[in-house]
Amino acid sequence: MKIAVIGTGYVGLVTAVCLAEIGHHVTGIDSNKKKIELLKKGKIPIYEPGLDKLLKKNKKRLVFTTSISEGTKNAVVIFIAVNTPPRADGSADMQYVEEVSRQIAKEMTSYKVIVEKSTVPVETGKWVKKVINLYNRKNVPFDVVSNPEFLREGQAVNDFLHPDRVVVGAGSKRAQDVMDELYRPIKAPKLFTSVETAEIIKHASNSFLATKISYINAVSRICEKVGADIEEVAEGMGMDKRIGRSFLKAGAGYGGSCFPKDASAFIWIAKKAGYDFNLLKEVEKINRGQRDMIVEKLENALWNLNGKTIGVLGIAFKPDTDDIRESPSVAVIKILLEEKARVKTYDPEAMKKAREVLKGVKFCSSPYEAARDSEALVLLTEWEEFRKMDLSKIKKLMKVPVFIDGRNLFKNKEMRSLGFIYQGVGR
């Protein structure tokens, strides 16, 4: 099948490459000329494990261009995977989706299935259809479909090729049949719904997972006050099949491009529909509080932070990605800078992007350089490299052995036996 994917960010690029992997001929389209030139050379502009290998493997089925006209001309299915950044009120900025919809309409000469792949508020499908009808002067037949993505950064390739489910909100039987054929090589349950239902499924899913994280973080606060261990509490809860262990991990809070944006958008969607989603508002409040909690732990250990040298391990919002959007680490570093602390930091993949948003920070070449002469170390991203650190060496390099473990990567007993003034979360 001939496919076009408009937008080659995290979602669009993974979608394009993985569709080629399952046998389709795919054109990736983006207005960013530098990004397209990079992709034409077989290089990827993001860090996503395994994606570069698949790009090279499927280069005969992958084409990249900046032209929507050229890229969509022969495509049966057109995926819209452009950015939908959040506005100040929590709503999504849909100008890029509208612009792309308008351009698609002007270029259509044969039946197309236009697929929302970006995370969009419910009723976006109606708007996309309305815009295309306005500019579809030749009255070319088309359908609009919602096909939300459930990709985890760092595991996106596996999530696309081996998903828990494929959700398709189709506007007609014809569109449903096309999408069924498209995903035939993917061995996973397929749920076909209305467009509006599929749009809600995405926001409801991510908001639920955000709620689960904030719930365990709230419980961790109680554990600290009464002397319980949140890791064991989460294990005990997770053994219940109705609850499950995933996303019951206390720490510095969630981040990234999905959970924060989708929770805020769902609150806005609910408000627009006439419902005050207070539960999700509290989820957001708890999450913000986790960043302040990390700083409070530092203050409790060092008193004043002014002039203190603090090493921060990890900048990406999670391991196996270079994404720093809404990263708890970035938020903590900014608070430390406001407190006039001297900040040193290291991340295996995210420092290039971090240099663009964090000024006045020393970027280090290793965790050991970040530890050298620091009066505290704060671990905020659970990279495997940090798990394998020589902790005895880390302690010797530090001026004061205060270690705040914002991801509970290490054990209390082990760290304290090494001589660290150690604090995790909820323990």
Low-confidence stretches: none
CATH architecture group name of the largest domain: 3-Layer(aba) Sandwich
**First and last CA, distance:** 53 Å
Annotated CATH topology of the largest domain: Rossmann fold
Describe the structure.
The chain is an alpha/beta fold and 427 residues long. Helices cover 45% and strands 14% of the residues. The strands form 2 sheets. Strands 3-2-1-4-5-6-7-8 form an 8-stranded mixed beta sheet, with helices on both faces. Strands 11-10-9-12-13-14 form a 6-stranded parallel beta sheet. α9 (195-226) runs parallel beside α12 (278-302) and α12 crosses α13 (328-338).
Descriptors:
Rossmann fold; 2 domains; elongated; single chain; 14 strands; alpha/beta; six-stranded parallel beta sheet; 14% strand; 427 residues
What are the SSEs and their pairings?
Elements: E1 2-6, H1 10-21, E2 25-29, H2 33-40, H3 51-57, E3 62-65, H4 68-72, E4 77-80, H5 95-107, E5 112-116, H6 124-135, E6 142-146, H7 156-161, E7 166-170, H8 173-182, E8 190-193, H9 195-226, H10 230-238, H11 259-273, H12 278-302, E9 309-313, H13 328-338, E10 342-346, H14 351-357, E11 362-363, H15 367-371, E12 376-379, H16 384-387, H17 391-397, E13 402-405, H18 412-417, E14 421-423
Parallel strand pairs: 1-2, 1-4, 2-3, 4-5, 5-6, 7-8, 9-10, 9-12, 10-11, 12-13, 13-14
Antiparallel strand pairs: 6-7
